[in-house]
Amino acid sequence: MGFAPVYLDWNATTPLDPAVRDAMLPWLGAAEPARFGNASSRHEYGRQARAAVDEARARVAAAVGAHATEVVFTSGGSEANNLFLKGAAATMKAGLVAIGAIEHPCVREPARQLRRAGWVLREIAVDADGRIDAADWRATLEARPALVSVMMANNETGVLQDVAVLAREARGAGAWFHTDAVQALGKVAVDFRALGVNAMTLSAHKIGGPLGAGALVVDKRVELAPLIAGGGQERGLRSGTENVAAIVGFGVACAQAAARQAGEAARLAVLRDELEAALCQLGARVFSAAAPRLPNTVFFALAHIDGETLVGKLDRAGFACASGSACSSANPEPSHTLLAMGVAPDVARGAVRVSLGRTTTADELRRFVATFAAVVHELKNLASVAA
């Protein structure tokens, strides 16, 4: 009997939650009563759309302990990260911008653009486990940065940073502190107020919501210049007619994720630990195993086995996983996260990421381990023949 393909790439994107789909259907004209108003219109159709956006905004805010007026909807996490870095920088005299050395490309690239605009860019070093290096962090604060961005959870290793401490110390040094919490939401507790950050990035498609919706949660004391000028939507910070269907879906996804978070985290942590134990028995090296991590993420490598080749063979065997960040999958270079952690390039090239989600089962992972062992055995035999 054949098996259905197994999806093990939940950090890249997630399937649309059924409750999210049902909430979106009227706004896509696919369920009655059909909704299609422009949220800026004054008539009944527009008021319905505005009410739906407002309800979604409240749900997103509630999921992260923020106030609804602090939520600015965007097209996703990349736009939200750009809005903070470029938007804040545009209101300031050029100074020092500091980002973690393992940030997602949608933080690294806008930071590099700021450097070309006269800013000084500093990448904060991490230790061998992928956590912010204490000595380099102190040196960064002594340099008095104006803007700091450190991700809450790494998309490849799953490593969690102590954002509350970092934010407090950065604010004490006079900086605005931002965290990319895209991977953290729904997997660990996320509380905007308790973390003490000035801004936070979220994305819908990582939590069972639709592609193309995200948010920057931002303290009103932070002055931002918009990236997109026009009709003045989103408090003037993100002009453009709202994607009501996606925003509605985002709101429902946030409510679902918040309700499930604790239970799912406990369940997935058990599966992750069992998977890691099995992989280690097969000779795998699990990266950042000693650091606090997301409960669903395993990033590992085997000596002398190419990650891209391994992922391709696993895919053909019915298991979808990743060799690194989906957003940089076209780049053949080793993971910049692992290189920043001091991992040798030849080891980093062998990295494979397995990320679990709400439909992942123990049986699926047992079948994955068996297939993985067979594929590795095949590749080692091919290598020995070639030698």
Descriptive account of the structure:
- The structure is a single chain.
- α2 runs parallel beside α8.
- The longest helix is centred in the C-terminal third of the chain and has 38 residues.
- The strands form three sheets. A seven-stranded mixed β-sheet has the order 2-8-7-6-5-3-4, sandwiched between helices. It has a three-stranded antiparallel β-sheet with strand order 9-10-12. A two-stranded parallel sheet has the order 1-11.
- It folds into two domains: 133 residues, Aspartate Aminotransferase, domain 1 (Alpha-Beta Complex); 239 residues, Aspartate Aminotransferase, domain 2 (3-Layer(aba) Sandwich), CATH 3.40.640.10.
- The two termini are 37 Å apart.
- The protein has 387 residues and is of the alpha/beta class.
- It is built from twelve helices and twelve strands.
- The radius of gyration is 22 Å and the shape is globular.
- The chain is 41% helix and 12% strand.
Give structural attributes:
globular, alpha/beta, Aspartate Aminotransferase, domain 2, seven-stranded mixed sheet, 12 helices, three-stranded antiparallel sheet, 387 residues, Aspartate Aminotransferase, domain 1
